[in-house]
What we know:
Mean pLDDT: 96
Structural class: alpha/beta
Strand content: 25-35%
Helix content: 10-25%
Distance between the termini: 9 Å
Order of helices and strands: EEEEHEEHHEEEEEHHE
Amino acid sequence: MKNLKLYVMKVGRLDMPDKGHMTPGSGVGEPISMPVYCYLIDHPKGLVLVDTGVHNEGPATVNEEDLVVNRIAEAGYKAEDVKYVVMTHMHVDHAAYMTEFPNATFVVRREELKAAWWPEVCEKGYVYDDYKETRGYDYLQPGDDEDYDLFLDGSVVLIDTKGHTRGHQSVVVTLADGSKTVLAGDASSLRENMDEMILPGYCSNSWFAMRSLEKLKHMDREGYTILFGHDVEQQNTLKISPDYYE
Length: 246
């Protein structure tokens, strides 16, 4: 898509005492310090934010400059100009600052909203207080298996990658040269999840999570660039905002 820009915004880090939380059966007992990302897409028809970050608490470290609204300003935009907020899912490290965008339209899978608002006992990772004020916001709710073309031009397409959560989605962005970049979220938190077909830590449905890993692996083989949710090595290879991809 001509004139489209993709910003990768680093919005904090997670210091986990046990990598096995992310890669069950691998790296158990090893500490890991992982980046947390949000993404900003400047499309000719409007700004799209993907995920809203994490609070500075628990295992997360978030400095003032890391706050998603400050990262948006650093890139030269205003938070109030965001047209769509796409949530890959609504876990604690992805949905902390939804309330900063009350005028945006949120795009969340219908099943993800159900899980976030009324989780089953086994569905962990949601923090109701982070988004309890967003109930009256404007939502678009793609269906469970739907490929959702956000601008109806093929440039920003939301794909079903459920399994980590029951409504998880990833975002496929087409840049000006026709190349495809996938914002994988936690469908594959680390490259190791995809490469070794290791489930991404907690999963609401392991079978669907494995199918989503297979989908991402196929895209990787076909030349798509996969941006993993929290990969440690990949962070050193990325253009980080205010730099951008186009």
